[in-house]
């Protein structure tokens, strides 16, 4: 009997989701086409250097999606579905604190964690959960109504969850069952044609457009699918030239002369999509909602906690300078700050312990009988090993919140005089019944494994930083 492995399920799911979303949101197909054009041109211009952070095959196939759910029970079901595809919850993101406007969600990202699995199918889904218990957004009456509404709906059919549990346990499925799982999983994320209760939706929308998108409907859907591009500034220009309205900025680090780090993101603006709206008298009329948009990303090098602290410090410096220099663009200010304080080469990032790399023996290493040094820096400097940057596979809460905010229909309401409900990675882990993994630990382990392999190959007892 033929079977489909988890990574094949993941790749097939990503491809089908992309096809479905392109049919629902045609501008997404334009975004994918322009990304491919830009990537091919960058590859021709830069050659092998363009593939230092992933082969062009991986970059072209790469996607991340975003969905939103309302309750811990729903998030646990999401974890079961993505667990079938070999995807694990990684990282905790509190968008309530990262956003200036009302974005009452906490998030994690489901993705592969093994390097080989990422290379085979680097698919991620940024998954946000509503926080009805946060009194800054929801008073007791609205919270009770919202929780009752969420408890009464079903996002994922029992058959899908049963198949997902089998795939996760066996790490594969028979071909027929795999096909059924894929059909059900994609269908569960399609935009529903069921009429939306206009009064209920507008009640939540006054609090937050994100809350309305989650709790104002009886289903969930893909909010965006994100291709990866090698030159996001060029993509932004080309999309604008095609008449597609983009958000005002590219979120994340600035474009500068040094290494790309972490993640840069932008999107086209949320589109007005026709939806059936049910009125108080039971009649149905056509309306429009703006909830889905087209995001694109450029990924850089994963930073260590020390590197991330520097990044956050630089963001603070840019914020401060921008507040005092309103005539200058934020991009120009950020670029100047980066060039003053961010190491300008991969070698400096590695030497300062600010970024993660994998290491391998150099083909042209010394063959004169000399003993290899026992530190990473010396091994690299003397040509014994080569360092390859580890791609940042995760997300930035401030950037995610910035994308969300740029596509909201309004600022919403938030009572900052009240204390927010406490959420953290441990609480999210308990809610979904599996550990939310620490991305830093994953990168550090990947780096450590590569150094241990080099040490064995060189006959060294250990390699020191």
UniProtKB/TrEMBL annotation:
Keywords: Dioxygenase, Iron, Oxidoreductase. It holds the Pfam family HGLS. It comes from the Bacteria. Gene3D superfamilies: Uncharacterised protein PF07063, DUF1338. Its EC number is 1.13.11.93. GO terms for molecular function: dioxygenase activity. SMART domains: DUF1338. Its cofactor is Fe(2+). InterPro entries: HGLS (IPR009770), YdcJ_bac-like (IPR047869). Belongs to the 2-oxoadipate dioxygenase/decarboxylase family. This is 2-oxoadipate dioxygenase/decarboxylase. It comes from Streptomyces broussonetiae. The lineage of its organism: Bacteria, Bacillati, Actinomycetota, Actinomycetes, Kitasatosporales.
